[in-house]
Amino acid sequence: ILVYTSDGQLCSRFSYPELLQQALSVAVASSGHVIVADSELDMIYIMDKHGRYLKKFGGTGSSPGHFNRPTFVCVGENDCIIVSDGDNHRIQVFDKSGKFLYAFGEAGSGKGQLCMPFGVVVDYHGNILVVDGGNQRIQIFKYGGEFVSCIESLADPMRAPRGIAVTTDGHVWVADRDNHCVKKFKYL
Q1: Structural domain of residue 123, as residue ranges?
Q2: DSSP labels for 149-165?
Q3: Does some domain include residue 124?
């Protein structure tokens, strides 16, 4: 894990060869805790703001609290930890200590169904936006997992969408890997 200043200077580097195999995503909680998703070991790690290991949770499986290739992680309301559980085709939500709260989504292409979710982010209204990678779309859920709506670009379809970010003025930015671009959508 590399930490940079706002002008691009390297501040610090945290290496965990005994813990991490494939760190794929990172998020920072309001407490300063660093949350890391390891998609090889199917684990989520929590480090303190100085990079010291605090705890891990997860493990391989499909039961609540276990993962099958966690791809992205973000932090939501009250520092809850939200994880895209890729090959289980769902989103899992945990409290800030890693205790399982709930999950939503199931394999499929219907509304509220997911196929290999990737990026996940919480907007300024508390909605959870999910990159539904296998279905080439973005899905929006209320906190709690209720389906709200879907963003699909029929005129210029997404091909392998991955990362996602939201703005305060109701736009969503999506990294569209196979189209070699970043797309911007108005969703509010």
Answers
A1: 105-188
A2: EEE--SSS--SSEEEEE
A3: yes
Residue at 20 is within a domain: no
170 pLDDT band, cuts 50/70/90, is very high
Q: Strand 100-104 vs strand 90-94: parallel, antiparallel, or unpaired?
A: antiparallel
Q: pTM surpassing 0.85? A: yes
Cα–Cα separations (whole angstroms), residue 169 to 119, 122, 123, 173? 20, 14, 10, 12
Specify the CATH number for the domain of residue 160. Answer: 2.40.10.500
Q: Is 180 left (phi over 0), alpha (psi -120 to 50) or beta?
A: left
Q: Is the dihedral of CA 98, 138, 145, 69 positive or negative?
A: negative
Rounded CA-CA distance 1/34 in Å is 10
pLDDT of amino acid 183? 94
Residue type for position 27: A
- For residue 134, being part of any structural domain is answered with yes
